[in-house]
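Continued from yesterday's entry.
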Amino acid sequence: MGTTSVTPQDTGSGSASGLDKDRDGRDGRDERGGRLGRLARSPLGWMLTGMVSVGLLSALTATGPGPVPALGAAAAVAAYWWVMNRVARRPTPEIALRGAGRATLLGSGVGLGFVIVSVLLITVFGGYSFSWAGHNVVPVVLSAVMVQIGASVTEELLFRALALQALEQLWGSRAAIVITSLFFGVAHLGTPGANAWSAPAIALEAGVLLGAAFLWRRSIWFVTGLHFTWNTAEQLLGVPVSGHAPEGLFTVRTHGSALLTGGSFGLEASLIPILIALALAAPMLVLAHRNGGMKTRLRAAH
C-alpha cells in the first residue's frame, strides 16, 4: 500500500514530529494533571478541599429547622469520606462505623462529666445560680440535640479530622495540636461576648482537650461525643455556649468575677473549666504517646 512505502528519513522526521506534538498535547496535559493531582493529594491540598466541602454544608444547614442540622452533619461526614478517599487517597479509620456507638458514648461521658463538675464548682464558689425557665422540655431538648449534632460533627471534621491530621503529617502531632488549638480560639473571636481573654481560653480549654482526645482515641466519634455532650449540657443548663445565649431548661444568673463565671461569653471563659480541661488533656496525651499516637514529622509522613 502506498501509505506504508516511506523512506527512513521521512519516517524518522514524521515520528519525531508526532512525538513532539503528542508531548505538547496529551502528555503535557497529563503532566499538568499530575502536578495538580499531587497538589490536591498533599496535606494542605486535601485539608483545604475538605474544609471547603464541610464548611459549605455546615453554613447551609447549621441554622435550619428541625433535623436539618443533623442531616447536614451526616452529609458532611459523607463529604469528608469522599475527599479523603478520592482526593487524598487515604483510608478513613477515624470515621469507621465499627465501634462508633461505643466511642460516642465514652466521649459523651467525658464531656458530661467535664461540664457537670465545672458548673458545680462555679456554683459552689457562688458564681452561678439557677432557676427553672418554664419551657416545654421536649421541644427544647430536641432543638438543642439537633443543633449541637450539626455543630459538633462539622467542627470536629474541620479542626481535628482535617486540620489536625494534615498539619500532623507536615510537622508532627505536637505542632499540629498547638496550631489547631490556636486556630480554634481565633475562630471563636467572632462570637457574641468574645474578648481578648476568650480566644486563648478556648484555645487552652477546647482546642487542647479535643485535640488530645483525638490523638488518644483516633476516632472522630469519641471526640464528637465529647464535644456534643459538652455543648448540649451547657445549652440545657442555660449557660451561654461560646457567647451564644441558649434557650435552655434553666435560667442562669452570674455573680462575681468573669474569671470565675466566664461572663457573657459563658463557661468556656471561666478559669475553672480551663484547669479541668488541661487536667483531662494531660493523661490523654500521655496515653497517646504510649500507644504510638503521637507522631513526629517523619513518622506522620509515612
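--- second protein ---
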Amino acid sequence: MAHLLTERWWNPFATAVVIGIIATIAWPLSAATGRNSGLGITTPSANLTGYLATGDTELIDWGVMLVIGILVGSFIAAKASGEFRIRVRDQATIIKSILGGIGMGVGAAIAGGCTVGNAMVSTAQFEYQGWVATLFMIVGAGVAAKATIKPKQSAAAVPTTESRSA
C-alpha cells in the first residue's frame, strides 16, 4: 500500500475522484461537528491562526483538523517517498512566492472563500458567488500562465549551420 500511495505518480483523474469522495464525505462530517459547510481551507486556516493567537478552543472544528491533516499528511508522504528536502530558494523566488501568497489571500477575501470553497462547495450549492469566483480563477490562471511561461523554440525554428549555408 505504501508503494501505491507514496512512490508512484498518481493519475490526475484518480486524484480528482479521491478529492470528490473526500468533498462528499465532508458535508455530513462537518455538520456532525457543528460546522455547517463543505470542504474548505480559507476559513479553517483563519480559525487555526485565531486559535494559535488566542487559545480559543471554540475555533477548533473539522475544517481545522483538515488543514492540520493536509500539513501532516504532506510531510509524512514526502518523508515516506524520500522526496522531503529543506530548500532555500533564491531571493527572487521568495519575493514572488510572498507576493503570490498575498494575492491569493486578498483574492480569497474578496471572493468570500478559497478555490476549494468556491469551486467545489459554492458551485455545488449553485451559489452565484461560486460560479463568478471560479470563472475569474480560470481567467486569472490563464492570464498568469500566458504572462509567466515563455514558449520554447522548437529545433526546427532554430537555424543550424547547414540551413544557413544552403
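Residues 1-86 form one domain. The chain is about 70% helix and 0% strand. Will compare against the first tomorrow.
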